[in-house]
Amino acid sequence: MAKKKNAFYAQSGGVTAVINASACGVIETARKHKDKIGKVYAGRNGIIGALTEDLIDTSKESAKAIAALRHTPSGAFGSCRFKLKSLEANKAEYERLIEVFKAHNIGYFFYNGGGDSADTCYKVSQLSESLGYPVQAIHVPKTVDNDLPITDNCPGFGSVAKYIAVSTLEATFDVRSMCATSTKVFVLEVMGRHAGWIAAAGAMASTKDCELPIVVLFPEVLFDKDKFLAKVDGLVKKFGYCTVVVSEGCHWPDGKFLAEQGTRDAFGHAQLGGAAPVVANMIKEALGHKFHWGVADYMQRAARHIASKSDVDQAYAMGKAAVEFALKGHNSVMPTIDRVSSSPYKWKVGMAPLSKVANVEKMMPKNFITKDGFGITDKCREYLAPLMKGEDYPPYKNGLPQYVTLKNVAVAKKLKTTYELKK
Amino acid sequence: MAKKKNAFYAQSGGVTAVINASACGVIETARKHKDKIGKVYAGRNGIIGALTEDLIDTSKESAKAIAALRHTPSGAFGSCRFKLKSLEANKAEYERLIEVFKAHNIGYFFYNGGGDSADTCYKVSQLSESLGYPVQAIHVPKTVDNDLPITDNCPGFGSVAKYIAVSTLEATFDVRSMCATSTKVFVLEVMGRHAGWIAAAGAMASTKDCELPIVVLFPEVLFDKDKFLAKVDGLVKKFGYCTVVVSEGCHWPDGKFLAEQGTRDAFGHAQLGGAAPVVANMIKEALGHKFHWGVADYMQRAARHIASKSDVDQAYAMGKAAVEFALKGHNSVMPTIDRVSSSPYKWKVGMAPLSKVANVEKMMPKNFITKDGFGITDKCREYLAPLMKGEDYPPYKNGLPQYVTLKNVAVAKKLKTTYELKK
Q1: What is the ipTM score, two decimals?
Q2: Do A26 and A131 belong to one domain?
Q3: pLDDT tens, A176-189?
Q4: Across the interface, which of A81, A272, A299 has its CB nearest the CB of B277?
Q5: Looking at the 3D structure of chain A, how many domains does it have?
Q6: Residue B366 forms part of a structural domain
């Protein structure tokens, strides 16, 4: 087998506006080191592509197509929601990975994802050694939830934060215009099942130059209906209107999500609704205000058109650093974003051992949320502001962003065995 | 009374990303003709400001602040949902308007809105003459619904169309990445209670260069559940995923909106939901696909950050033309956008008599919708494409667009009478 090893890259979990910028960083950097790294194979639909030996040959893509990944949202090779079981529960999965890596002479494993994939990455690095086929496993951080430890922030989050802050600003201006005779409360539902980072970004729409009445409902703060309604009532009395940014993870003291209000359709079936209509109807019923509500859903994490430049730069830098770490012989690590200063914003690339990253969830610090539980502190603003900074517009043609769709040419299979995924 | 008359400007109905660009066009053009037009007064919260003599003196705003209106969404002076009654039902309302105009030496009435305000504008021009205080009434077109007659399109629509096309493109890329193991259908709810112009824009995300499976549910097409589910099923089988863009006005053959599915909360109260969750749950139940859904609501019409340059230019041009028409002595007219050619896109300012604009609603032509009722034709694409063309980014500071909030200084009241609004 050749001394020069190939690399494997896969995207994991929910995709973001900038995960492809990390892919771009990985592939472009690997291409600059053809003396040491052979081809970069990508997993079709993430790690599943490795398990089923469905690999994509990225060398078939032009330099122009790879460069366009930097401004293309979503996962260009497909992602998946598939968590490998623990070693004890399903060692065969890990053995299969190594089998595929061995067959395709893969010596570098770049896994681009959140907490679960950091854990997988860590286990692969450990097991590959004990199975006699050592693979350098490097995790590339990605998650809109911003909940990975050690790194100051996660690529993907800054762009969502910018989208939510801009959308909150714009919708709040709208309701401000209409409130004399029409809508008085606008409710926006945002992502974040456990951590309120994204919801916090909504509060960034209000600044010292332009104060706007915005109420945030965090998953970290148990929902108190009376206190919340009193807050909305006070703001509408003072300003004439207000905006509520509600995290999908906001829940009652008993742990039940606001969105699970027991809503039923005409046939009595439990209805999967959103937190936004629940909150909006609650306000209407108690205070009588006319409302509008929106749900940002996939739009927020796919909104490459309004990505933060900090975020795009960092996503690319993480991909690039992952390859550079591998070339330096590192294993079982993750590049991190280390903040040097907030104002002016300075950051550098750091390194964290995967043993300390895997299975640790970073929540919002208590001193980032105001005492009343409905807003963010100056400390939080100082943290968030640089992550949303700068614009990095994609190129447009006929009014639409020019996002790339890759050819995604399959690598010929080498194994005679197939692998059935266990659900 | 001075020979030089003042002007009155008011914003009406739902605001848009570019209605302030029209205000900018009115005020900047009026300021260039100070020999003929005195001050421009704006109605605080639209026509209500005129009825209650709550006028804003726009001359107190700096040139810089007025220029910033061009890139600021929402209604800078406040808008309202308040339709004047017919002359027969409440002549007093019209008499009050004339009384206020007379007291403040207002000879020009610029009303920025949709069909209802065109009607009001028309009646004011007629009545003012018969009351012996002639006012030149010019309507400035605005509506995201794109439903005004004669004009090729309405300022406000192009930017919503661009936002919806871009959001649909981005979210569809997202679901395409996830469909192997997770979400297979994404449902986006958009505005448009009567006309499907905005929903049609969602289909623009699919192009010859990049074909995407998008199903549109128009208000013009009676909802056929079986046919719809078969369409979704076919696309998911072929592509692995699909996106549904549903207009809020989509309805069953009996006229009931999809959103009014008789959904009830835990207490049995009828729940105001959206069309998107209804459609998403319908697909889940029949086909079993995992779904996500979003509701663009106010975000779509306030999204100045991704406004279409065509739209911004036209909104400004309509405001400018309205003042120029007034200076030329025209009355009871509306500037229009006349398309000269689609490719390359060329347009010029035209003029329509309000008698032909008032109370006429322009629906989508039948030949703009595909035979199966779920898509748009090439003719529709040719119409929509230029309206979404070009970007016109606002300036940013610290990651946020720099939208202006005016001082909105009140004009001293001159009348001793007050006016109570009739609901």
Answers
A1: 0.97
A2: yes
A3: 999 999 999 999 99
A4: A272
A5: 2
A6: no
